Amino acid sequence: MTPSNSLQMQNINNVRKGKTQLHKWAERQVIFCGTCLIVASVKDSLAGKMHILPLVGGKVEEVKRRQHCLMFSSAGSQAQTYFVIFDTLADYQRWHRQASKVVSQTVNLVDLSCYSLETVPEYLFYCQDITHLNLRHNFMSLQGPGGLQNLPRFCQLKSLNISHNRLGVFPECVCEILTLTELNLSCNNLHTIPMQIGNLQSLQTLSLDGNHLSSLPEELGGLLQLNSLGLSFNNFCHIPAVLERLSAVDKLAMAGNRVDSLELSTLVRMSHLRNIDLRLNGLRWLKSENTEPVSQVTQMDLRDNCLDTLDLSSVCNLETLHCQRNQLGTLTLSGFTLRLLQASSNRLTTVNVYPVPNQLTHMDVSQNLLEYLPDWVCDCRKIELLDVTHNLLSELPLRLLNSLSLRKLLAGNNCLQSVPDLLDHVPLEVLDLQHNKLVELPECLFYKALNLKYLNVSANALESVPLSSQSEESLSTLQELYLTGNNLNEDCGALLVGHQNLRILHIAYNQLLSFPASKLSKLELLEELNLSGNKLKTIPSTVSSCKRLHTLIAHSNHINTFPDILNLPEIKLVDLSCNELTEIQLPESLPATLQELDLTGNGSLTLENKTLNFFSNITTLKLDQKSTTTSGDSLSSSTLWRHGYSEMRGQRNKLCVSVLAVDHFRDSVEACYGIFDGDRNEQVPRLLQCTMGDVLCEDLQHSSVDTVYMCNTFLTSHRKLGMAGQKLGASALLCYIHREASDPAGHFSLTVANVGTCQAVLCRDGRPIQLSRVYSLENCKEEMERVKLSKAIITEDNKVSGVTCCSRLLGCSYLSPWVLPEPWVHTEPLCSQDEFLILGNRALFERVTYQEAVYTVQAVRDPRAAAKKLCSLAQSYGCKDNIGAVVVSLDICEDSCTCEPSVSITEPRVTPPTLVPVSVNPCSSDPANLSSSSGIVTEFSSETSASEMGSEVGSTASDEHPSSGPASRPERRCSLHPATALCGIMVPGSAGAGTHPGVFQRQPSCATFSSNQSDNGLDSDDEAPLEGVISNGSKLEVEVDIHCCAFQLRSGSPESPKELNVENQGSDYCNGNVCRQNSVVVSATNGCLLAVCGREIGDLKKSPSTSSLFGKKLSNGSVVAPEDSHNIIEVALEAPKKKSGYFTAPAQQDPEDQLIVPPSLEQEVREQLKGQSTLVPGLSAPPTPTSLKDPVWNPPQPPAFVSSLVPGPATILQQEVYDTAL
């Protein structure tokens, strides 16, 4: 029975007993539970007299004479019948459907796992036909009316699962259920097994894994039918002698114990054991004192031990051996029956197998120290797969490649300089030779290996590729070809034309000046094409002949003409970023399949509103927002850091990696970066991305100790996941650049905290420095020991309970205490030798080493292009998972200080001041408000129509000049010595209020303006179309940077204040519906100062990164805050996707909560909000754009923003808010 079937349904209905009409209709409590129908009194439904009607084998029929009436009958000679009338058709159909399932059951299974039960429901004891009872993952008690001591009442019970109940003692009552054939008592903190276990003579399967057992009773040896005994993850120091008597048991399941030595003679005495599982035991030696062969053992699993040598030559019938992740230097085996050998991640210099293993089909000796392959490998007649990656091989034997059985050869990351010629046709299907020193491939490769479907020769020194055939007609079956990172030129295009079955072609980062148009047209089956990092100026128009093409990646070239690809019927992703595009020729219509178009980094590309409207249906559109520069701007200082990011989905349908990046955190000389990897779920990374920056900002107000505020940030974020974090989790990495609290004017430090497998690498003097710690069971022995001591079940693939390989995650609460949210925290002082910081997820660093990542970024320099290259390389190296990378360039020095003598201001570390309307003071923008030279990203993301928007807010705009008094000369500040900050709100440095003529005012609101206030791109008070405003039917769409909406809020008195009318309409947020027509990420180098009312300032102030409350999210959940002040016209109040009850836990605040202020300021806020309803002017502070063609680490940036204190009722404030919403 399914869990839903085991839950009771109950109603008060009219009931009549028996088929005759001697009984009257009466109102009764009717309960359908388990496999029984219970009829009881209405007042005492479970305490009074109950009539139990077993339904298994019985029948349920419709009664046509009465409306909504069912007849329930039990089976057998003493069958009883009840007629039940239901009030509604829905109830009638639901009960009929459930009862029909029960009466047809033959196996009586009740599954009550994971219901937090303390007792067995009383009504279940009336179901005498129950044979299988699952009480796993509950809190069952031994005593009480429904306690485990009552289990013998199930007289037909055959299978009982009470694992994960933390019982502490063995429930001896189960030894009275003599019908049991299967008993699972895993993970119950058991220390002993009673001798009464011998009563269960019918027992066939006994699971005692994950307890504290160190011995077994002798009575257990009397269970002659027992054929499966699980003893893994206990405290056994040796193999229990009682196993010698259990002749039906054929597997020794003792993984995760304390067996540090093994005499093979012990296995000889247990002649019935064929499968030996001694993983994770800390085995240090295994030997045989006599020459007697161990003939019965066929499979051995010795993974994750401490063996330095292994001689199993006496195990003469061994078929399968797993000995990965030991410290083996030598390995000796018998080859008579050997079929599979897994010996990766050791220190092997040779492998001795005698005789030649003619039955061997799979061999994995990767990540060892092999300098040559043993001769016997070439003599294997049936070998199909050979993995020798990450060794020291300098050559491949000629006989190996000419083997008539080898189908898959993986020889990447070696020192190969050549590949032997093929003498005859071979059945090779997969050949991986990446990361070697190959200059050429055998000329006969493609027409001798006609079955070759996959070839990866990336990261070599190839200058050409072989011909596909010797004649014009090609028989090539090649489907995937990876040539990234070689020295190929445009001539190779003509050599690829013969591979007409090619589906995936990666030829990125070569020396291609062009691609032959006539050749590309012949690759009609091409589905994915990557031409990034070359010197292409155009993509041939014949690409339109590739009707199956769904992915075109050609970033980091010199392309100036948009290719003819928007007419392709299956196109999904087009990446033409970091090129030289100037215009786009629009087709008549866009294909419905197009999901992502990336045009960032094209400095000369200008799109009109008509074009933007044309692209409005694309799920994700990434564009650059052009900057505007005024004569008052000057380049007086450079930014200290800037970032770029990239994410790729791989072969998955969803992106489970999210990024957080805030270049101006709190006081604009701090930064926060993060990356979150959900492995196979996208919900948790999105939630972390929208909350973690805010949590860190809040915790920094309470502590300046790195371990304290980082641990609190991770624990709070873990709690805020709510229901989403119960069974889902994510790796998380957070980097915080700051000055030490003890020395605010001193050097910068980088504090890194992480859980899971996301990593951070700092480049210092060209060398990588690992700042994070990988919390996976395979990479961290300390965590492996901790998880073992807590008695978790670790499966063969090194996953906790088969769920995750990580021992520390945010989320996955149900795996506690095995999986914890406690982070690794490390603080590294930064110096002038620090060049850049790389953040990446597991998929990136599994394929790209730290040193290669550093070389890659050094060669590219521009952070965004470098991040894209890292992801492209990982894909070309064979990664199929989601990939995420963040590159942060650093320029930590004191040389760029441009301060003038400043007015001394104290910096109280207290709760933020009262939220009041503010006005804008004209001056230069903050230097940290600039993006990288390639601009910020603009993304359109549409999943719901504009009519489905949950809330709409009206807008007002004005170009009237606010009045102002005499403005004093502001104090100049540099990025190294900023204006004093107060919890993320900038406190001005001098008195006086300045104004600026032509200040544009706009209120932050939702993603659409109502049509009565905006028409055809013109706001009600504007005379010309507004930059960044997109007209779309009756709605006006506005470009919003989802990555980093930087708001600068200041105070003053406007000349003509306007009333701000905010309509808070119904929102779909709490229902989990994503309310948006277009999600836009604006990439801008100009700043826009927003004026908002006091209520909105409060909303902004609650969230310095406005993580989940402002801005829009990408459809893939990616959010990067490109840090700079943007031309933000409008901000959307949107919610993350909610599919399974997010934000329903008590710790998770409702996203539509009202304004929250500290109790001490509540009365003051109320008084000020009553009198505040005016709109305050904002000021645009545009910077100077930088060049895209020749990117450098530190482009010139405008001077720091200067604020002044003014007398008056309102305090002048500057606040920067960064949106890292979903």
From TrEMBL:
<keyword id="KW-0677">Repeat</keyword>
<keyword id="KW-0378">Hydrolase</keyword>
<keyword id="KW-0472">Membrane</keyword>
<keyword id="KW-0479">Metal-binding</keyword>
<feature type="domain" description="PPM-type phosphatase">
    <location>
        <begin position="642"/>
        <end position="890"/>
    </location>
</feature>
<dbReference type="InterPro" id="IPR036457">
    <property type="entry name" value="PPM-type-like_dom_sf"/>
</dbReference>
<feature type="region of interest" description="Disordered">
    <location>
        <begin position="1004"/>
        <end position="1026"/>
    </location>
</feature>
<dbReference type="Pfam" id="PF00560">
    <property type="entry name" value="LRR_1"/>
</dbReference>
<keyword id="KW-0464">Manganese</keyword>
<comment type="function">
    <text>Protein phosphatase involved in regulation of Akt and PKC signaling. Mediates dephosphorylation in the C-terminal domain hydrophobic motif of members of the AGC Ser/Thr protein kinase family; specifically acts on 'Ser-473' of AKT1, 'Ser-660' of PRKCB isoform beta-II and 'Ser-657' of PRKCA. Akt regulates the balance between cell survival and apoptosis through a cascade that primarily alters the function of transcription factors that regulate pro- and antiapoptotic genes. Dephosphorylation of 'Ser-473' of Akt triggers apoptosis and decreases cell proliferation.</text>
</comment>
<dbReference type="InterPro" id="IPR050216">
    <property type="entry name" value="LRR_domain-containing"/>
</dbReference>
<protein>
    <recommendedName>
        <fullName>PH domain leucine-rich repeat-containing protein phosphatase 2</fullName>
        <ecNumber>3.1.3.16</ecNumber>
    </recommendedName>
</protein>
<feature type="compositionally biased region" description="Polar residues">
    <location>
        <begin position="1004"/>
        <end position="1017"/>
    </location>
</feature>
<dbReference type="Pfam" id="PF00481">
    <property type="entry name" value="PP2C"/>
</dbReference>
<dbReference type="GO" id="GO:0005634">
    <property type="term" value="C:nucleus"/>
</dbReference>
<dbReference type="GO" id="GO:0016020">
    <property type="term" value="C:membrane"/>
</dbReference>
<dbReference type="GO" id="GO:0005737">
    <property type="term" value="C:cytoplasm"/>
</dbReference>
<dbReference type="InterPro" id="IPR032675">
    <property type="entry name" value="LRR_dom_sf"/>
</dbReference>
<dbReference type="GO" id="GO:0046872">
    <property type="term" value="F:metal ion binding"/>
</dbReference>
<keyword id="KW-0433">Leucine-rich repeat</keyword>
<dbReference type="Pfam" id="PF13855">
    <property type="entry name" value="LRR_8"/>
</dbReference>
<feature type="region of interest" description="Disordered">
    <location>
        <begin position="926"/>
        <end position="973"/>
    </location>
</feature>
<keyword id="KW-0963">Cytoplasm</keyword>
<dbReference type="InterPro" id="IPR001611">
    <property type="entry name" value="Leu-rich_rpt"/>
</dbReference>
<dbReference type="GO" id="GO:0004722">
    <property type="term" value="F:protein serine/threonine phosphatase activity"/>
</dbReference>
<dbReference type="InterPro" id="IPR003591">
    <property type="entry name" value="Leu-rich_rpt_typical-subtyp"/>
</dbReference>
<dbReference type="InterPro" id="IPR001932">
    <property type="entry name" value="PPM-type_phosphatase-like_dom"/>
</dbReference>
<feature type="compositionally biased region" description="Polar residues">
    <location>
        <begin position="926"/>
        <end position="957"/>
    </location>
</feature>
<keyword id="KW-0539">Nucleus</keyword>
<keyword id="KW-0904">Protein phosphatase</keyword>
<keyword id="KW-0597">Phosphoprotein</keyword>
